[in-house]
Amino acid sequence: MRYAMMAGSRVINRGFSEKENQWKQAEGNAYFVQSPDVGYLKVSFFGPFYGSYVIFELDKKKYQYAYVSGPNRNYLWLLARTPEIDQKIIDQFIERSRELGFDVDNLIFVAHE
After folding, report:
1. Is the CB of residue 7 less than 8 Å from the CB of residue 52?
2. Which CA distances in Å does 86 have to 29, 42, 66, 80?
3. What is the rounded CA–CA span in Å between residue 41 and residue 106?
4. Domain-located, residue 110
5. Alpha carbon distance 6, 9 (integer Å)
6. Looking at residue 83, which CATH number applies to its domain?
7. CA 98 to CA 23: how far, in whole Å?
8. How many structural domains are present in the chain?
9. Cys staple from 14: which of 25, 35, 69, 97, with CB 3.0 to 4.6 Å?
């Protein structure tokens, strides 16, 4: 899945289903939980239900990727603006996630073709 996130505005979550051979897209809203300089957002794609997105690493130069988790260590994403991600970034994501106590042994990396 790839998406662009702007707090206080629309969020697009878009991914390709190989099983159905089609793109799927969901629109939602994101809001800062604390302040705009803290990477902790609440995001809703389904009406009044919100999920936490905690940004624990961000490409601050070009905003090409973000390492994101849920409010605990049950959810973990590497979000990117492009289908291809440099292996160095993936390796850094795995290492940083491991350091923070995430179970990285069962990560799923989606092949984008």
Report:
1. no
2. 29, 28, 13, 11
3. 25
4. no
5. 6
6. 2.40.128.20
7. 31
8. 1
9. 25
